[in-house]
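Continuing the batch. This is chain 6 of the set; chains 1 through 5 are on the previous pages. Same settings as before, nothing changed between runs. Recording input and output for traceability.
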Amino acid sequence: MILISYLKASKYYAKIIEFKEYINRIGIRIDIGFLSLAEIELST
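Output for chain 6:
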């Protein structure tokens, strides 16, 4: 019983880590997008 719940928890934890990495990648892309927009606005 404990082993099963441990396996479920570790699977869930792995999903959270994947999700965080995915959000970080999206966040970096969004930051780059905002920086390029800011540069365009400053240059005009």
